[in-house]
Amino acid sequence: MRNMIKKLLAMGLPMAASRFIHTFNTFLIMLLIARIGHNALAASFTIAMTRVVMLVIFLSPLFAIGPIVSRNYLQHHSNEKQSTSFIQQGWCVALLLSIIPLVTLSFLEPILRFFHQPANLIPLVGEYFKYYMWAIPGIYLSTVNQQYLAGIKKQHYVIAINLTIFVLSILLNTGLIFGYFGLPKLGIAGAGIASIITTWTSFILSTIITQRLSPVSHKRLRLNQLNNAKLILKIGLPICLKSGS
What we know:
It is built from 10 helices and no strands. By secondary structure, the chain is mainly α. It has one domain.
């Protein structure tokens, strides 16, 4: 029983720490946006809530990858192909899941007008998400990599990546929003652009690490070889429904 608790804590605490870093980073970004002005302060609430919907609900099926890979890794430790196929097929699932947020954010301003949001805030929210939407695929793909690393007991890499991205995010957001560090002053659009840079940097870093630890096969996928993708959706969709409720 003690060994089981230790294993759960060893896997869970680093991931909880990573979620805290991400949440704290989002909080600081919203504070930076709020400093632009009163309208930006009001818009930051809508931005934060929209981000929660896009990331908590639609991203949640990918959280099934960690436990699945962990179980598979213990059973097939010597079979790297069995484990690394989760990365490739997880990327496919991530891109599929990112379609809904991308489409939703493409029509965000009309949606906000339909729900009678303040007219002076809609352009600000739209300006942010016009850029942020292109960070969505990077966030989803990076989550696959980080869940895989957690599943093979390499959580320290996940924390290292998230700490690096946290520092980069604060520097870029401060610079691009207010024009510091020789960067252009872009206001609320700068926060969206910073998100694109940081999320895709996170994906690149996590991909480099996963490739070094467990090289991924680049063979062409076939529909009859997507068993792991189906398993991710089978286990992950109930998580999505629970998050949505």
